[in-house]
Amino acid sequence: MAKRDILSVADFTPGEIEQLVKQAVKSKKEAWPQVLAGKSIVLLFEKPSLRTRMSFELAVHQLGGYAMYMSPEEVGLGKRESVPDVAHVLSRYVQGIVARTFQHRTLETLAEFSSIPVINALSDYEHPCQALADLTTIYERKGKLKGLNLAFVGDGNNVANSLLLACSMVGINFLIASPQEYSLKDNILMIANKYAEKSGSQIMLLEEPAMAAKDADVIYTDVWTSMGQEEEYEQRCIAFAEYQVNDKLLAYAKKDALVMHPLPAHHGEEVAVGIVDRYRSVIFDQAENRLHFQRTLLAELYK
To answer: What does the alpha-carbon distance between residue 302 and residue 228 come to, in Å, rounded to a whole number?
Structure first.
């Protein structure tokens, strides 16, 4: 098996994304290939997690492998032990690294010095498995991807970056409403625009949430303050006060629009109280599909 790292949505081709999304949906009704039998995968986490840890551990087990979780205290990436040394050592013990890190550069260093695949389970720059599991949910619900309108309301964060890339690759129109200082960065836009030219996707950066939500097939939001940004909490709550997904905003979207959130949700902040309860089937489909997409991804990497 040739080593292949998945650090970004851009590590896939548009064709691979569509294939993986469709296969993830089909995999719910099929027998799972035991491609990880006799193999071990380490989950190397600098941040706590519910969905990411559970979905990856279960995916590894369901493919016949053994998953091992290592907490920040056990490893001390870049503190107790250098990242290159950790990469070299783990390459002698296991067959893959699933890493959840504060800095994207840590992932890049792990990939550079390891001889085994490294998968991004979240960094400050991207969250590719989340975004592609989200496409799985959208495809499952809508029966297509190309031509849909996805409105992202809130912070231009790691999830937004990965969703932007994924949407631009498969022809979903991506509209994001953010305060100007919290919008998407030029470097990610430059990459996404190249994909959009080929797929026909439209990308729009807006400041008014209602403009993004108009005729949306999907309304997507995420927390205003991510892990590691706690000192900015009060400042961000003020900046995003008008960016809540609520009934008023949803009235601009299509009647059958999906409301999506990667969780955990801060009820009363980015989503009005009661919104998640009304759309729990979609939002928890998202959470479930993390397992199905990641199992499909691992099956492809290790086939």
So the answer is: 33
Q: What is the pLDDT of residues 175-229, one digit of tens each?
A: 999 999 999 999 999 999 999 999 999 999 999 999 999 999 999 999 988 766 7
pLDDT single digits (tens) 233-243? 889 999 999 99
Query: 3-state DSSP call for residue 210?
Result: helix
CA distances to 79, 88, 239, 249 from 276, rounded to whole Å, are: 39, 43, 22, 14
Q: Are strands 118-120 and 203-206 parallel, antiparallel or unpaired?
A: unpaired
CATH class of 130-287: alpha beta
Whether the CB-CB separation of 292 and 136 falls below 8 Å is answered with: yes
DSSP 62: H
Contacts of 120 by beta carbon, 8 Å cutoff, 6+ apart: 6, 7, 8, 99, 104, 107, 126, 127, 128, 129
- Cα distance between residue 98 and residue 102, in whole Å: 14
The domain at 9-126+290-301 falls in which architecture? 3-Layer(aba) Sandwich (3.40)
Query: What pTM, to 2 d.p., does this model score?
Result: 0.96
Residues of the chain with CATH 3.40.50.1370: 9-126+290-301, 130-287
